[in-house]
């Protein structure tokens, strides 16, 4: 378990898939993440089995410290130990918990884990240009915009750019994310 002030991270459990299921039913969440499909519980159970056997990733449930409620998930993916880098993704599962700082705190915890426990040098993510709230949150915790894949996603009858953002160990030391 990785503890912050308002949230903590714990390993994903099979029972958490219902929260994932609910998130994939929410149109706003699908739009922000560029997800076109909703998933069945069977598909999510298979997803859980697959990710829990994948050594190249770490998957966490984001839970509220005050009542242990699961409010989202995050993953450190494609961990490349040779090059000391990985990808990152996060999702808050219910719009009720947007704009409360929980995602930013969980991201800080993931950054701390990535640089202190996994000893990575780089963490990278992709965010769509229509997700202004996400971009702002990532910049707030030290990620920097590194590139743009123009008009990479066509969703809701419009194109969005895919913004590549990263944080390096040097950025982390300068920024020193504290929770």
Write up what this structure looks like.
The chain is an alpha+beta fold and 179 residues long. It has a single domain, classed as 3-Layer(aba) Sandwich (Aminopeptidase), CATH 3.40.630. It has 6 helices and 8 strands; from the N terminus they run E-E-H-H-H-E-E-E-H-E-H-E-E-H. The chain has an 8-stranded mixed sheet, sandwiched between helices. Strand 1 and strand 2 form a beta hairpin. Helix 1 crosses helix 3. The chain is globular. It starts with a strand and ends with a helix.
The CATH top-level class label: Alpha Beta
Q: What is CATH's topology name?
A: Aminopeptidase
Major sheet size, sense and barrel closure: 8 strands, mixed
Number of domains: 1
Q: Give the termini distance in whole angstroms.
A: 14 Å
Element pattern in H and E: EEHHHEEEHEHEEH
| CATH architecture field | 3-Layer(aba) Sandwich
> Low-confidence spans: pLDDT under 50, at least 5 residues?
none
Number of helices: 6
Rg to the nearest angstrom?
16 Å
In what order do the strands lie side by side in the largest sheet?
A: 1-2-3-4-5-6-8-7
The percentage of residues in β strands lies in 35-45%
What is the share of helical residues?
25-40%
